[in-house]
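User: Please look over both lines:
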Amino acid sequence: MSVKEFFFGFSDDTKAQFPWLFVDYDIDRHTCRRTVPMQVLSLGMSRTGTASMKKALEILGYPTCHGFDMHANVKDGDMWGEAFAAKYFGDTSTVLDRNFWDKMLGHVSATTDTPANCFGPELIASYPEAKVILVERDVDAWYTSFDQAVIVSNEIPHWFRALLEQLSEKAWKLRHIIPGIMKGQFQARDIPEWRSKAKTVYKEHYAEIRGLLEDQPDRLLEYQLGNGWKPLCEFLGKDIPDVEFPRINESAQHDTMIKIVFLQMARNVFIASVKTALPVVVAFFLWRDWS
């Protein structure tokens, strides 16, 4: 990230590394339907290798949803917001049934990461034919990673967040996501409570998913990152690929992505301000010279 990219746009290298941050498909999922079968629900919490699992599932032939994907289609924020409202905030106008998920996730055969993992019970019930994967880390190691990558990046003043939402279309479209995770999934009113509840919610999440599948053990794979292709491919009935199992440094990727997103927002705000202010400045000097 550089001053040059702020004023003149992002380099081709940056765009190639994070392509989903530089497109907007502008798809309204409300109008969509299922085009591929839902086959795999990877419901581990964020910061448990979800980006690596996404890549692995895609290598095996499953189009996969990950939280990063929202940046390539910010209208997804609308339906995710409806899902959070229905599950956590008492909105009865939305039913989280198969019809809803076929619209929201009809373009993918697998899910991983947040926000999909917030709706594990609903997805398991909606897709009884789908297999379920749980990737779990030591809770203390997970908490350190989650705090540094997710919670810290959201420690921004409310006024600044509100300003971004007013001036950045992306921030506005995705405004429901973090409140949905913090106040919904983690049942926290603020950042300190988010931290204090994080480990408990983490443990409860895994216990809930295991409990739902207690009588369907063949449907669940408990996977540890580092185990490679064999257990995953045996579980899914796939041949082992002739490539190494993907290992993505999610911390570094997330940190860089956050910087790009904020730089994008700041740049868009700057450009909008210049476009608004420039005619006023020109008109002022013309008026002054004319006078």
Summary: The chain has 13 helices and five strands. The domain at 3-290 is CATH 3.40.50.300 (Rossmann fold). The longest strand covers residues 131-135.
